[in-house]
Amino acid sequence: MRTLINIFRIPELRKRVFFTLGVLIIYRLGFFIPLVGVDQSALQSYYESQST
Question: What pLDDT score does 52 carry?
Fold first, then answer.
């Protein structure tokens, strides 16, 4: 627990942690945005056929 507290006391590490979390959040939100020009039903059926 003390290590986490020390991470947020050092400005450079704090900036890196927040940057990494921000990138991960943007990536996860971007995952749910549909792509223009891509047939979603065809893409879904392709992934379903690959998983079996």
Answer: 64
CA distances (Å), origin 2, targets 5, 7, 9, 43: 5, 9, 11, 47
What are the sequence ranges of the domains in the chain?
2-51
Residue type, 27: Y
How many whole angstroms separate alpha carbon 6 and alpha carbon 50?
46
Instruction: List, in sequence order, the alpha helices (H) in the chain.
Output: 2-9, 11-31, 40-51
Q: SS3 for 37?
A: coil
| Structure confidence by residue, pLDDT tens digits, 1-52 | 888 888 889 999 999 999 999 999 999 998 888 888 888 899 889 989 987 6
